[in-house]
Write a structure and sequence with these properties.
Layout (H helix, E strand, L loop, with lengths): L10 H15 L1 H9 L4 E2 L14 H19 L3 E2 L2 E4 L4 H11 L4 H7 L1 H11 L4 H10 L5 E7 L3 H16 L3 E11 L4 E2 L2 H4 L3 E15 L2 E10 L10 E4 L4 E7 L5 E5 L13 E8 L26 E3 L12 E3 L5 H10 L30 H14 L3 E12 L8 E11 L5 H9 L2 E3 L1 H13 L4 E2 L1 E2 L9 E3 L6 E3 L3 H8 L8 H4 L3 E2 L9 E3 L3 E2 L1 H6 L1 H4 L8 H7 L5 E4 L6 H13 L6 E5 L2 E2 L16 H8 L1 H9 L9 E2 L2 H31 L19 H22 L3 H22 L1 H5 L4 H22 L4 H11 L30 H23 L8 E7 L3 H9 L1 H8 L1 E7 L7 E7 L1 H8 L3 H9 L3 H10 L2 E3 L2 E3 L4 E7 L4 H7 E6 L2 E6 L4 H22 L8 E8 L4 H8 L1 H8 L3 E3 L9 E9 L2 E9 L5 H7 L10 E6 L13 E5 ...
Parallel strand pairs: 1-2, 3-4, 8-11, 9-13, 17-26, 25-26, 27-28, 29-30, 37-38, 41-44, 45-48
Antiparallel strand pairs: 5-6, 5-16, 7-8, 7-15, 9-14, 10-11, 10-12, 16-18, 19-24, 20-21, 20-23, 22-23, 29-36, 31-34, 32-33, 35-36, 37-40, 39-40, 41-42, 43-44, 45-46, 47-48
Helix pairs in contact: 1-27, 4-6, 12-13, 20-21, 21-22, 22-24, 22-26, 23-24, 23-26, 23-28, 26-27, 28-29, 28-30, 35-36, 35-37
């Protein structure tokens, strides 16, 4: 049975309970057991480091992965989800270096690699438990027990195999290359690593003069922001096609040579220099100059210290003459190599060590850190009169992504993978993959691949997978080892671990007799090579799991941040292309970056973002998940994280959704208590379709949503799916439930109530399955209650959790595009009307006379007409007028520019554009509303740039403008009459009173079925509010479904539930809610609307003060039939007494019966005719003086239905006492009772359609016709 649902909810606490359920059920393992044998869906999880705690980037990536893999399971796939850990590399080593104060390789050597790596191993999984707890708390299902770690020997062995294959294919070489170098981590970085952490910095910018050897009065001038590279200068470079000049400095008299278009970098005004000569850059080739420093003067014999020519020198920066330090710049190295100044195999001219400190022969700055040495280099040049100018330059500069220290470009010997020669294959394989968003693949990733460079995969570090190359002392013999078994065979040793301390000492004989044994090279792999090898290494391929690998490769899906286009995405593709010339994945989602609220990078040091754990504890994981994935970040844009955004998701989406579910549960449980049999069979959704238009709309919209979700999720477009799901929640809660509350409560009869409840149940049941991958907690919470009423076809085990269920298939037969279109138009009308009410500050409570809806399309007007009653109700207007004739109302449209938006953008042109905008015709503005843009004087203007205004024209323009307020959306225009009359104003005030009653009921935690009387008093008693409270009492009672009484009519023994005093319309209103209804309420409420009499004669019975209804009865009034069928089975006095006892549960009570117009006990029954329609009082016997309530003689106080069976007439009471124990939906009991009345078996009665049941028969003259079989 469905459980009652509390009014309030703490989402975070409920999620904790769901987590406990999942833990008990071992949900992921159970899911995998259920899906065993189904088609496999492979997913690669990029391994994070466990040396730090998860941040919002991890939360976002994990959410995207969780959604897609959950959805894949719901689509009938077997989805293994293994977690992986990146355990090697700079992130770990940097932590140890910082903790132990290690400054460079000499410190590690003194400590010992074995001890150093032991320290690294200790912290690798420092936060593993926290990761598992946080990821689990976020609702992500991932297998931590069957994980992979890059430090596992079997994982490292697969990396060796990958490398050996590349080596045997000739894709590995050793070379010297100028690379990004981290002095903080003492190691080179790959090009993609260097792009991970750019910062705005202010560096020194100097212009330096180089004396020409042939004429020491003439100087070449060069500009640089790295003065520390000047001691290593070996050449200058110019552009041969550009124009250069020799100028005389007016102030100093010195002669300088530089590019003509770059004169502005040295001079502010033309009178500061005199041009002596003009010439092309090519004419400077080969000219020699005097070295700035003496350290490498011997290189002059190799062609150093002369001018070289290359097209990389541009005209947009510097002086047009670039100083060349070949081992500190990629182009510098290339040009010097081409010129023969250096050779590939020579000793490097690189007087800077791994820590970034100067070494020999740079004696003047020996031991100084290069950035610290900048100022001393500048001082040195100034002292020798070669410094022309010194300033600063603000520019973007790369920093180490791990140590956060400035990178330098430095030549280092390294092992490389030949990537450049694979460029076409990389592009072709990339094209065969599907990326979301597509532009990331085509632009950012595509451009990176087109400029792909050879990949330096070696690192001069310690904690990593050692490169499996054993080399002879002369470098002529190189052996690659591809497995542990191979190394054991070569060395004769048993291998248990593959880290440096375990294998560095291992050697094996040279293949050349008499040569020393081969030793392993000292480098380890770049950790990106390790993570890029995870498709193979996680399965220990090819040593194990070959069959599984063939099924899992390439992956169906991967996802990470957009920054991985130069990281993991790239390395995966390079390695898979090199190995198999295949892409490593089929589908990829690249999400954007999560920034702090101020747009800066999130920083623990700055504390500029809230702790994810605290946010989840406060709002719940579902709210955080939905906030992240319903943002621009899933379109690869950046998100400025704001905690209030998570709060708004909770308030605006999850809470209304929960309230819709609670409203369903509340009404279903109430109807079940009243006797309704309620279950849900989804297979009947097509055959048992409600005729109510709103039911059909929400069902159709649900099926359209399912079709959309399936289409878009197949294309991995989360950024289109999630907004549509959010919109669906809005449609369900703010439109369907709100507009059908009365039906769902049963106010339109039991049949219609059942249709409404079944529709809402159907929609919620579809919704919890559809939303389960996105919001796993709230969907599980709802499902655990909903499932009690569902008739499942699956086994009980597969229906335990909503996450075990498959996504429902869309039922296209239930899609009604006409109804969806009509409701969408109705919604537009209602939204426009609400905007006008808000603009004029007229609350919905106050009725308005008329709404005019203008549209040129007759079909649109017909759509709106079909739903007119909803517009009348939602906007509280008396009349809706539909027309195509806009001229009749004299309304025209005009446009005004948005000064704030356009003024800043157009600046000087704003005035002319403003005049043109104001001159736009009504037709122009209508076209703009349809197209959503317009070109004005060459400027494209969009909705944010213009404000649409409305004018009334013609003879009645002034009257129309005062009467109507206009608003439009696209080509739909509405006019709302905002001039209510006095009766409408009074109704609005009555609605204010109703609102106060309803709020107090809610505050007292009452449910609709609670019988409560509202008593009021108003001061002043002669004011408008008091007058309306009295004159609109019947209206108020009909809406609040309970008595509305002045406090002077309150009896002394009443039980107070809640009270409140407040100011309303300038009057003081005191409200009191009292338990129960007064004795006259039933007759005043239900009876007065009844126009049909029962076939059988009857008497009403009234329970008086001193006696209380019991055993489930709550009402004090009931009805007893004096005969049934007509003229048969006449009632006796003992039977009347027994009936009264049964109705009110008075077993064992001492009571007597009085006629309402007598003061003595009823001793015997008068004849039926004289007793008919009277009221009998049920009073305590020998009690105190009796206080007789005011009574209304007349129709029965309970609902009934008249019955005709073969001409024999009877009456069936549908409740007794009034409002209790309803039979309206209990056909079985009704059949039994009628069988007793007619003296036949219930099985012999053919009652026809169930539509015959319901309280509408109490106001109909059409009896229920039944036949005896």
């Amino acid at each position: 049975m469905m459980q009652s649902v509390p009014e309030s909810i703490n989402f975070a606490q409920e999620e904790e309970k769901i987590l406990e359920l999942w833990k008990q059920w071992d949900v992921l393992k159970t899911c995998l057991r259920h899906s065993k044998g189904k088609p496999r869906y492979s997913f690669y999880d990029g391994p994070p480091f466990a040396t730090g705690l998860p941040h919002y980037g991890h939360v976002l990536a994990g959410t995207v992965k969780d959604i897609v893999t959950r959805y894949a399971h719901q689509q009938g796939f077997h989805v293994e989800r293994r977690f992986g850990w990146d355990c090697h590399g700079l992130p770990v080593e940097f932590e140890i270096d910082t903790a132990l104060g290690i400054k460079g390789p000499q410190d590690v050597a003194a400590m010992g690699i074995d001890k150093y790596n032991s320290e690294c191993r200790k912290i690798v999984m420092r936060y593993a438990n926290e990761w598992e707890a946080i990821i689990g708390r976020l609702g992500r299902w991932i297998d931590f027990k069957n994980d992979y770690k890059t430090l596992y020997p079997w994982y490292m062995e697969s990396i060796w195999w990958v490398f050996s294959q590349l080596f045997l294919k000739g894709l590995v070489y050793r070379g010297v290359k100028v690379m990004p170098f981290s002095t903080g981590c003492n190691t080179p970085l790959s090009n993609f690593e260097s792009g991970l952490n750019y910062k705005e910095v202010v560096d020194p910018a100097v212009i330096v003069s180089f004396p020409l050897l042939e004429d020491n009065t003439v100087y070449f001038v060069a500009w640089t922001t790295t003065p520390w590279t000047l001691p290593s200068n070996l050449a200058l470079c110019v552009n041969g096609n550009s124009n250069y000049v020799k100028v005389k400095d007016v102030k100093t008299g010195k002669l300088y040579i530089l590019m003509e278009v770059r004169l502005g970098i040295l001079y502010n005004k033309e009178d500061q220099y005199i041009i002596i000569e003009r010439f092309k850059g090519i004419s400077l080739k080969g000219k020699k100059y005097k070295p700035l420093f003496p350290y490498f003067k011997d290189y002059a014999s190799r062609g150093a210290f002369e001018v070289l020519v290359d097209s990389y020198v541009t005209e947009d920066a510097g002086t047009g003459i670039v100083h060349q330090a070949p081992y500190f710049g990629e182009d510098d190295y290339r040009i010097a190599l081409e010129a023969g100044i250096i050779t590939r195999d020579q000793k490097m001219v690189c007087p800077v060590d791994d820590r970034g400190c100067f070494t020999e022969p740079v004696t003047d700055f020996l031991g100084q850190y290069i950035k610290d040495a900048d100022k001393n280099v500048i001082k040195y040049l100034k002292n020798i009169d070669l410094l022309v100018n010194s300033s600063t330059s603000k520019h973007s500069y790369p920093f180490c992504w791990r140590s956060d220290t400035p990178l330098i470009y430095r030549a280092v010997p390294s092992w490389f993978i030949r990537v450049q020669q694979m460029c076409n294959d990389l592009l072709q394989n990339s094209q065969s993959t599907h990326w979301v968003p597509e532009f990331v693949k085509e632009k950012r990733f595509g451009n990176w691949l087109r400029d792909a460079r050879d990949w330096a995969v070696s690192r001069n570090r310690y904690w990593g997978t050692p490169i499996p190359l054993w080399v002879s002392d002369d470098g002529e013999e190189v052996v690659v080892v591809g497995s542990i078994a191979e190394l054991e065979q070569l060395t004769g040793q048993t291998i248990k671990d593959l880290h440096r301390e375990s294998i560095d000492h291992l050697t094996f004989p040279s293949a050349r007799p008499g040569r020393p044994p081969l030793k392993r090279v000292s480098e380890v792999f770049d950790c990106w090579f390790e993570s890029g090898s995870m498709p193979y290494a996680q399965l220990h391929y090819p040593f194990e799991h070959r069959k599984e690998f063939d099924e899992y490769f390439p992956a169906d899906f991967i996802a990470e941040g957009i920054d991985q286009t130069r990281g993991w995405f790239y390395t995966l593709l390079v390695i898979s292309t090199a190995l198999f010339n295949k892409p490593p994945f089929k589908n990829l989602i690249a999400h954007g970056l999560v920034l702090a609220g101020d747009g800066q990078k999130m920083s623990k040091r700055k504390k500029n973002y809230p702790d994810p754990v605290e946010v989840v504890t406060k709002y719940g994981a579902d709210a955080l998940r939905l906030y992240l994935i319903n943002s621009p970040v899933v379109r690869a844009e950046s998100l400025r994280f704001k905690e209030e955004g998570v709060r708004d998701v909770l308030k605006d989406l999850l809470l209304p959704w929960y309230n819709a579910y609670r409203f369903l549960a509340q009404n279903v449980t109430q109807k079940v208590k009243e006797g309704m049999q309620f279950t849900f069979d989804e297979s009947l959704a097509i055959t048992d379709v409600s005729e109510n238009v709103m039911d059909r709309w929400i069902i159709s919209f649900t099926q359209s949503l399912l079709l959309f979700v399936k289409t878009e999720m197949a294309a991995y477009r989360l950024y289109t799916v999630v907004p549509r799901l959010v919109k669906f929640i809005d449609h369900l809660t703010n439109w369907y439930v709100r507009m059908n509350r009365k039906r769902l409560k049963g106010e339109s009869g039991p049949v219609d109530c059942r249709h409404a409840l079944t529709t809402l149940f159907h929609v919620l049941f579809v919704m919890v399955r559809t939303m389960a991958p996105f919001t796993p907690f709230i969907t599980e919470l709802m499902y655990q209650n909903l499932k009690h009423l569902v008739l499942f076809c699956d086994t009980k085990e597969t229906t335990v959790s909503v996450h075990y269920l498959m996504l429902p298939e869309p039922r296209t037969l239930l899609v009604d595009e006409v109804i969806e279109r009509a409701v969408a138009r109705m919604q537009s009308v209602i939204d426009l009307g609400r905007v006008i009410r808000d603009r004029k500050t007229i609350p919905i409570k106050y009725p308005l006379p008329e709404m005019v809806i203008i549209h040129e399309d007759e079909q649109c007007l017909q759509d709106i007409k079909s739903l007119e009653r909803y517009i009348l109700d939602e906007l509280n207007v008396r009349k809706v007028t539909l027309t195509k004739d806009k001229q009749k109302y004299g309304v025209s449209l005009r446009a005004e520019p948005d000064h704030k938006t356009l003024g800043a953008r157009l600046k000087g042109e704003f005035k002319a554009v403003t005049i043109a905008v104001k001159a736009l015709s009504d037709l122009d503005v209508q076209k703009f509303l349809l197209q959503r843009f317009i070109d004005v004087l060459g400027h494209r203007l969009e909705p944010a740039d213009l404000r649409i205004m409305y004018n009334f024209t013609g003879a009645a323009a002034e009257d129309l403008a005062q009467r109507y307020e206009a608003h439009s959306e696209n080509d739909l225009l509405i006019l709302l009459d905002v001039t209510p009359d006095d009766t409408m104003l009074e109704e609005g005030i009555a609605r204010e009173l109703i609102n106060r009653v309803q709020k107090l009921r809610k505050k007292a935690h009452l449910v609709p079925s609670d019988e409560v009387t509202a008593y009021y008093s108003i001061s002043p008693s002669d004011g408008q509010l008091a007058r309306v409270a009295a004159s609109h009492a019947e209206f108020i009672e009909n809406v609040v479904k309970g008595p509305w009484r002045h406090c002077s009519k309150k009896l002394g023994h009443t039980l107070m539930i809640a009270e409140e005093t407040q100011m309303v319309k300038g009057s003081e209103l005191k409200l009191e809610l009292v338990k129960g209804f007064p004795s006259d309420y039933a007759s005043c409420d239900s009876v007065k609307t009844r126009t049909v009499e029962p076939f059988c004669r009857y008497v009403n019975v009234q329970l008086c003060e001193g006696l209380e209804p019991r055993y489930g009865a709550t009402s004090t009034m009931g009805t007893v039939l004096l005969e049934n069928p007509v003229c048969e089975n006449f009632l006796s006095l003992p039977q009347l007494r027994k009936e009264s006892e049964l109705i009110f549960g008075l077993y064992g009570q001492n009571f007597e019966l009085l006629l309402s117009d007598a003061s003595s006990e009823l001793k015997g029954l008068p004849d039926v005719d004289s007793l008919h329609k009277k009221t009998v009082l049920v009073v305590p016997k020998k009690g105190e003086s009796l206080k007789v309530p005011s009574l209304v003689q007349g129709p029965p106080v309970t609902k009934f239905v008249n019955v005709n069976c073969g001409g024999k007439k009877a009456t069936l009471l549908l409740e007794n006492p009034a409002g209790n124990f309803s039979l309206e939906s209990d056909v079985v009991t009704m059949r039994k009772l009628l069988g007793c009345v007619y003296g036949v078996s219930a099985k012999c009665l053919n009652m026809g359609t169930v539509e015959a049941n319901g309280h509408k028969f109490s106001t109909s003259d059409k009896p229920l016709i039944i036949n005896s079989k």
